[in-house]
Write a structure and sequence with these properties.
- With 502 residues, the protein is α/β, with parallel strands linked by helices.
- 25% of the residues lie in helices and 20% in strands.
- It has an eight-stranded parallel beta sheet with strand order 10-9-8-7-3-2-1-11. Strands 12-13-14-19-16-17 form a six-stranded antiparallel beta sheet, with helices on one face. It has a three-stranded antiparallel beta sheet with strand order 4-6-5.
Length: 502
């Protein structure tokens, strides 16, 4: 009973629970079968260069991050991709990326120097593979204006770049100078095949195709086919703000797709990386896209801006736990955007929480069951029959969040075991899942039927109404309420208020 007393002595001031809105969850029929290239059966995990080192990546940066993934223990936890984002290629100006004899982008050898017969990207990929990790690279749709101007041949064909280009500008956010490809023209698919073959020969395990939308579906199909024909298992990711109306297409031809814009706030250089409002914008995306993710093809809610500490990340420790919980419930790729060589110890504990990672790696998308101005509840039923639920407080004050076990799809039971995956505390409840949740915080719970309620202490919540201001010498009334949610009585409950002197 000492454990019960210890649990109940932890009194957290909380507002009384707000009215709970239960919303019906409907799921559209699953779309077309997922990408069948043999990779991406669980959400991808790793690190990306996008934030740090950002616009000035080097081979040394990639190798240092790859080593840090291993020495930090994150590789053992499942983070095994090192993804080189934009800025790895020569970009002389608005005329487009420099190209080789066959119209493909040229590596920036000043930042990715060759070694012997290996080019700079091959050098990095070999190092990453040596550590037991995988290597990714970035590209955008279309063909460089320089290739068209130089009329470069398409490898293995009698065709040239100007014969397949359509003259319409394509998205390349940071270099420019790309134009579309007319895939009805002979040589168009062969050009993409030659580029994919080159990536495969470099040891690439992941390709991010950026700047795509519904207007680029021919490019998505071409790259999907090209990567498969290499014979090398290569994860194919799409970015960004993909149209949900074309979800079945993204699922059929890729392993993942960004559902929205960048999570980064771009409100510092480079810090802070993001804001709570940017993270909170994902709740609706997760709810809307839930029917479309699954093994082989996952909804991607963008990178985890966790690792460099609250000031740099732009999130409190509590908010970081909420971000990680939502991504895990949504079975999203977990890709770190932080300085791997200077990880904050508390942030590292968030990233490597195996119990939370397992929620992500079950490859099941959660549905939303509660949606109010201050409360979000998402849950999913795992193959074991356990339900994993995230009770999120998006408001500015602590709240008690409650939801019936039956609403979350749990079978009828006399008692339920609640395992908090962040605190690792276990409690029992008679049927109402009710927890104190701090502002911008989450209670991430694994819930299962419990035969012996006496094995763990009962779940309890504390609510209070306290005047906004107290004046010395004048009477005031405060109400503090403790609720025992368990089957068994909570013994040794002691309630109190701490007041300032006077």
């Amino acid at each position: 009973m000492k454990s019960v007393k210890r649990l109940l002595r932890i009194l957290v001031a909380a507002l009384m629970a707000a009215p709970l809105a239960i919303v019906a969850v409907t799921s559209a029929a699953p779309p077309a079968s997922a990408e069948d290239n043999g990779v991406g059966l669980t959400p991808l995990m790793g690190w990306s260069t996008w934030n740090v080192p950002g616009r000035d990546p080097t081979a040394a940066d990639d190798e240092a991050a790859a080593l840090a993934l291993k020495t930090s223990g994150l590789l053992k936890a499942g983070y095994n991709y090192v993804n080189q984002d934009d800025f790895w290629y020569d970009c002389p100006g608005s005329q487009g990326p420099d190209v080789d004899a066959y119209g493909r982008w040229v590596i920036d050898a000043s930042e990715f120097p060759p070694s012997g017969s290996l080019n700079g990207i091959q050098v990095v990929a070999n190092y990453v593979h040596h550590l037991g990790e995988k290597f990714g690279i970035y590209v955008t749709p279309g063909i460089s204006d320089q290739a068209v101007a130089e009329n470069t041949p398409i490898e293995g064909t009698p065709y040239t770049a100007d014969e397949i280009a359509d003259g319409v500008p394509e998205n390349n956010y940071n270099c420019g100078g790309m134009q579309g490809i007319d895939y009805s023209k002979p040589g168009a698919q062969a050009f993409i095949d030659s580029w994919a073959d080159e990536f495969a020969s470099w040891g690439v395990d992941y390709v991010k195709l950026d700047g795509v939308g519904s207007f680029d579906i021919p490019d998505v199909k071409a790259w999907s086919n090209a990567l498969r024909q290499t014979g090398r298992p290569i994860h194919f990711e799409l970015s960004n703000s993909l149209n949900i109306d074309d979800a079945s297409t993204w699922q059929q031809y890729s392993n993942g797709w960004r559902t929205g814009g960048d999570i980064q706030c771009y409100c510092g250089d480079p810090y802070p990386l993001t804001t709570w409002s940017s993270v909170a914008s994902r709740f609706n995306q997760v709810a809307e896209w839930a029917p479309y993710g699954g093994p082989g093809a996952f909804n991607d809610y963008d990178s985890l801006t966790i690792g460099s500490g609250p000031a740099a990340d732009g999130l409190s420790f509590t908010e970081e736990q909420s971000m990680m919980s939502l991504w895990a419930l949504a079975a999203s790729p977990l890709v770190i955007n932080a300085d791997m060589t200077d990880l904050d110890p508390a942030d590292l504990s968030v990233l490597e929480n195996r119990a939370v990672i397992s929620v992500d790696q079950d490859a099941i998308d959660a549905n939303r069951f509660v949606n109010t101005s201050t409360e979000q509840v998402f849950a999913k039923t795992e193959k074991s029959g356990d339900v994993v639920a995230g009770l999120f407080n998006t408001g500015g004050s602590p709240e008690v969040i409650s939801v019936p076990a039956a609403t979350l799809g749990l079978p009828a039971s006399g008692a339920y075991l609640l395992n908090n995956l962040w605190t690792h505390h276990e409690t029992e409840t008679a049927g109402t899942i009710s927890v104190n949740v701090p502002s911008h915080g989450v209670a991430l719970l694994r819930i299962s039927a419990l035969r012996d309620p006496g094995a763990v202490p009962p779940s309890g919540t504390l609510s209070s109404t306290v005047p906004g201001a107290l004046t010395g010498g004048q009477a005031a009334t405060a109400t503090v309420s403790f609720t025992d949610n368990g089957v068994l009585p909570a013994l040794g409950v002691r309630l109190g208020l701490h007041l300032p002197k006077g």
